[in-house]
Structures are given as C-alpha cells and as structure tokens.
Amino acid sequence: MQFVWSKPRRALILLTALVAVAATLALYLIVIAGETSRVSGRVAYVVDGNLFIKELPDGEPRQITAENNAQHPRWSSTGEWLAYNTEPPILAAGGSQAWVTNAATGEIREAGFPAVWAPQHDYFLTRVDNEFLDYHIVTADGTVLHVLEQPRERGARTLSSVMWTADGEGIAYIFILGRRPDDGAEIRVRNIKSGRDEVLYTHESDTPYVYGWSSDGQFLFFIVDETSKILSLDTREVVDTGKEIGIASRGSQQPDGNSILAVETTANGIWQGKRIGLVEPTSGEFTYLTNPEVAAIHARWSPDGSQISYIAGPDRSGTPEPTTPQEVEALIDNRHVWIMDADGSNQRQLTTEPRYRDEDPEWTADGEHLLFVRIDLEFPDRDPSLWVLDVSTGQTTLLVERMSYPPPRLAILPEGTSFLGTVEWLYDFHN
Question: What is the pTM of this model?
C-alpha cells in the first residue's frame, strides 16, 4: 500500500526540519562566539601575603610564595618574569625589598628596590641599598647591564626621578646642580649601551619632577613651577600646559594617534577635581572629555584607540574634609567603570551595582573585555575581588574571589588605596 503525505503534514515536517537546522546553527554560533570572546592572558595577585598566578579564564591558581609578606606584583614585558615587593611600598618607612620570580619555574631571587621593568625588555631598574643609593639595570636572570652612580664627591644625593625611556633603551633622571633643590637641576637621559648622557633641559632655580613619556618616546612630561610641562625630544622646545596633570602609567598615547590621555588634578582629594582630557603635545593644549560634575580617573585607551575606559563617580567638591578612612570611603563609594569614544562622546556607565565600588579597569588584547576590581560595600571587611566585563553586553564574570590589601600607605586613605584611591597594585595582568 502506498503511503501518501498530506500537504499539512509535509509543511509540518519541513518546518520542524528548518527549526532543527536553525537551532543547530544558533548553537554553533554561540559556541563560536564564546570561543572568540574568551579572555586570555594571566594575572598575578596576592592573597594573605602570598603570591599567586592564574591563567585566564579558568586556570587553576598556582601559589608562588609562602612567606606571607608579598605584595604589588608586576609582570615583565614578555610575561615570563614577575617582580613583587615584600614590605610596604615606597611611602612606608624602611625595610622594603623587591624580588623577581620566573613564572614557569618558580625560581626566586633578590632584586633590590624598587624593581621597575623596562618597556619591551626583560630587564629592570632597581635602586641599590648602598651608602650612595646607586641604580642598577639588571636582567631578569641577575646580570648587571649598567650602573648609574650617585656622584661620590658631592656628599649628597643628587639623582632623582629616575625612570625608563619609552623604548627601554635608556633612563631619564634629574641631576641636581647644587646641594639644595633650589640650586637648579638638569633633566638628563643616559643611553645604557653607550653609557653617554644627554642634557635635555636645565632649570636654574628649582628641581623638576619627571613623571612620564608619550608612548612613542617623542615627548617627556615633567612638573616644575607647579605646572606640567612637555618637552619635545625633536626640537627641545618646552610647552606649558598651564595645569597640573597626570598621564597613564602605560599606553598614554592614542594608538596610531598623537593625543595624550591625561587627568587634570585640581585638588588633592581623591573624590574631587579630577577630569579626564586629551593633551596635544606640541602645543600643550588640554581638551576636557569629562565634565566637572564627575570625578574621573584611571583612563585607558582601548587597543585600537577608538574608546577610553575609566573610573568615575560624583564629584564631591565642597564636602567637609574627611578625617578618617571611613569618611573617605563614603565619598568614593559610587565609583564605577565607564567607557567613552575617543573624542569624549557616547559616555556610558558599564557597571551599576550599588553594592560594589569598582576600580582599575584594564583592557584585554582583543578590546572586547575589561578586567576590574570590586570592593564590596555591604561587607567592608571582605577582600576585593577581580572580575571581567564584556564591553558589548555588560556581563560580568568573577575571575578571582579575593585579593588581599597591602598595609595602608597613608593613614587618611582607606586601607590599600593610593593617592587617587585606586587599588591597582592588588593585581597585574599580562595579555
């Protein structure tokens, strides 16, 4: 007997088949999307004074130290080596020490203090604990590449603001011309291969403070006479921004662009007078991106330079000066992760949960995610946690349940916070 399909039945079978195909395709796309958006890289962080490394997104944490005194992890440029401290950072009194460990083998050795990794190289700058406080440049495995000596005949420390050049091939520093800071000073750069010094700038009546480079190494930022200046290495011209500004510790210059990302700091309080803007390095012109109703800090370019992430909360100017860490916390408890386009448009808040204060967002290499720290306001005794945020969807995922505060740096600030209230030494991320 021949079986004959009715038209309605054929339509139903066809529809079922199409739904099945669509569901399979959707599942495939979800799997593919999940694979392409997975966060990669590794984080180093401290719990109860011990150093841990975790491969993202779901690697098992590896404990590196067990002495209960580690803090402030910092990756080398390749991610093969990790530096950390074993006492409170620089603002604390005495006893600080830095160490370097191989992330693969766990080998640990002493490194002076502080240990500052060179851009693009696995060697670091460290201050030597001798009577002169000289500086050494040391490879990750312990070989001394170069020595920057304090002048022996002066009887006083005359080198300050020692820092890497943007390419890691030299070190910039201040050379004080007399025995006192108001005797004048020079900004010098030492080429570590040739050992030769070059004088970039001389100030006859005060000592500048050098605090950063443009990413391309063509402009040097420093403060003297209470305002930020920009020195062009090409022309040796110096322009005055007319403001006191800070630039990002890394990646300050727009990728494939010229603008420098900076924060104007018109007041000392971490809850007031902080506005993000762009500096044009040849003219010193500062263009505001955020408005004065918001205290915004920790600005970072996305990898393609099209967006800027930052932390922002209401500007609390005019409030009574806080006298305890708890009062400071209350003034910054509404800080969250924000993002905007490169020209300051399309500003939008990405994290909104009132239970948390969010800090220190860092971009992943794909430009699709931000790592950030959360402080639980409902349970202030809990340690901070590390999360990842999908920029396109706003979805947040817990990466590290707890990271421990280091000892307080300044009595007035909340435990573990910096001048700007951030907690960026709780972890370090390597893409």
Answer: 0.86
